[in-house]
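step: validate -> pass
step: tokenize input -> pass
step: predict -> running
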Amino acid sequence: MEDEKKPSKTIRKPRADAQRNRRRLAEVAKAAFTEQGADVSLDEIARRAGVGIGTLYRHFPTRDAILEAIYRQEAEQLGEAASNLLEKTEPVEALRAWLRLFVDYIATKKLILPALKASACDTSELTAYSSGQVRTASHLLVQRAIENGDIKQDVHALDLLYALYGFVSVDQQPDVVVRAHRLIDILVAGTIK
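step: predict -> pass
step: emit ->
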């Protein structure tokens, strides 16, 4: 009996320019959603990005697809930021800077997640993915700060995340980000050896 050769299903990676265009469209869409809310039209997003609606639909065939891409992109950028910050600055300052980025992430999540939940999307995989990115990055930063002798050994990354998430989620004041940054300074000061 001869071995049958099955056609291979190779998945081509998108070209680098296509990936850049997709990322740029997601960034423009995030800004539009932030400014105008979850009901901003896809035509408006395409106009702001300087592309035709067909180009937008080629990258994101539905509103849900673009919302999901923004959510995923934000989580990935937050995850990548931990290593990048550790390369450039001392661990405790990298932790402080990353926590500020986390506050921005929470603000995006507050905007995007309700729209995704209201759609037909199954958000469980997406939220698990983003939670993994956030937890991995925060644990890395806290561990490095502990190893460097910057913060106490009993500091837990999740405690910092929960404190910030709770504060930003409950507070609806327009200056919440500024106040959250002050809270970060207080939290980090409380962890110093």
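step: describe -> The mean pLDDT is 87.
step: cleanup -> pass
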